[in-house]
Amino acid sequence: AKCVDIALSSCTDVAYTQMVYPNFLDQKSREVIEYSSEYLLISVLHNLLQGECNPDLRLLGCSVLAPQCEKDKVIKPCRHVYSSEQDIWMHLDKPCFDCSFIFHNSSTYKDNLKKREVDAEEDLPSDLPATFIQFKHHSYSQMVSTLKKTASKCSHIATTYSIGRSFEGKDLFVIEFSTKPGHHELLKPEFKYIGNMHGNEVVGKELLIYLAQYLCSEYLLGNPRIQTLINNTRIHLLPSLNPDGYELAAEEGAGYNGWVIGRQTAQNLDLNRNFPDLTSEAYRRAGIRGARLDHIPIPQSYWWGKVAPETKAVMKWLRSIPFVLSASLHGGELVVTYPYDYSRHPMEEKMFSPTPDEKVILFL
Questions:
Q1: Region 130-148: what's the mean pLDDT?
Q2: Which of 27, 38, 152, 157 has the lowest CB atom count within 10 Å?
Q3: What average pLDDT does this structure show over 295-319?
Q4: Ranges for the FZ domain (predicted)?
């Protein structure tokens, strides 16, 4: 056996970096694995089971399709974990797994996964009130788990959904609050917050996770201001638009990653510069009699460049829900940018260029 780097996009977050061919299903190349029904199942498992499955299932499947390899020796996954989940894998030919060499002699499969967590979950007292909010940093998996638990706690006013996937296949997870979760109501305004557009700017991400927990807790406690907000507005929170960049920054650790590592996506794209420049188009159309400024078509030239899947997901999101107000939370500077973000004349960066609703935006 010869160890090679893992190149399977659905298995890049396992706790090891090298695998071996053939795998336990005798699949001898990356191409064969990626075209197999087993790999397809792993890639859609989360959505297929609507997030209700054991989160270790996909990683367990990866340990079968991409066996851990160290010093050209195969490290086999643990029998008792495999057996406990075997009902999901009935269609697989079951190879015999040897637990004696399990992941650096760790006692369980889950112990090994925790090595990948930036901040492991702490055991909390069982007698905490339902409205308790734990202030801590959240890894991607912890963020998803927290949002799902929050939506479950307030299921009558909250739900979660994904607007798409990042380049590396992570769900772009949203939690929504309204009196009819999952449904647009006529004349009820739609609002959204987006955080973590730059993967290494995490304050906005954490604030939105806490905001979700706060909205749920305060609604349950009968806070009239929060109840009025949720009863009269449909609120969408997307804490992390760039989970791939976040993971890269998190691997380096706070204080060691500079301001560029993880800022961009896995495709090396800055999402803050990846959307179409409709401001310039608005200036151009403003000089045309009868031209509309409320529905500006995207210039065809925009599509000639590289458009990130995260960008496309947000654009599709905007088409599916009639948002009336939005904000994106960044970090590292005390600045508020609002339409129009660009000056009328590109060479005059500090030129005052108000939008027609300038007074409304300043009031907000």
A1: 84
A2: 152
A3: 92
A4: 1-96
Torsion 48-50-53-59 (CA) sign:
positive
Report d(CA 161, CA 142) in Å as an integer. Answer: 16
Q: Are 199 and 264 in contact (CB under 8 A)?
A: yes
Cα separation, 359 vs 364, whole angstroms: 9
For residue 24, the model assigns a pLDDT of: 84
> What pLDDT sits at residue 104?
35
Which domains does the chain carry? 3-116 (1.10.2000.10), 122-269+306-333 (3.40.630.10)
Instruction: Work out the burial of residue 113: count CB atoms within 10 Å of its CB; fewer than 13 is exposed, 13-18 middle, 19 or more buried.
Output: buried
Q: For helices 140-153 and 243-252, give the axis angle rounded to 10 degrees.
A: 120
Task: Tell me which of 52-66, 83-97, 189-203, 334-348 is least confident.
Answer: 83-97
Strands (DSSP E) found in the chain: 3-5, 18-20, 68-70, 73-75, 158-165, 171-177, 190-195, 234-238, 323-329
Cα–Cα distance, 229 to 242 (Å, whole number) = 28
Residue 121 has pLDDT above 50, yes or no: no
Mean pLDDT across the chain: 80
Cβ(210)–Cβ(78) under 8 Å?
no
Tokens 């190349």, located at residue:
29
The secondary structure of residue 168, as a DSSP letter, is T
Nearest to 158 by CA among 200, 218, 113: 218
The closest of 208, 197, 210, 283 to 243, measured between CA atoms, is 197
Buried b (16+ CB within 10 A) or exposed e, 140-173: bbbbbebbbebbeebeebbbbbbbebbbbbbbbb
- Distance, in Å, from the CA atom of 65 to the CA atom of 59, rounded to the nearest integer, reads 10
pTM for the structure as a whole: 0.64
Dihedral pair phi/psi, residue 354, rounded to 5°:
-75, 150
The pLDDT of residue 81 is above 50: no
- What is the b/e burial string over 298-330, where b = at least 16 CB atoms within 10 angstroms of the residue's CB? eeeeeeeeebbbbbebbbebeeeeeeeeeebbb
Residue 323, pLDDT score: 96
Counting residues of the chain whose pLDDT is more than 90, the rounded percentage is 43
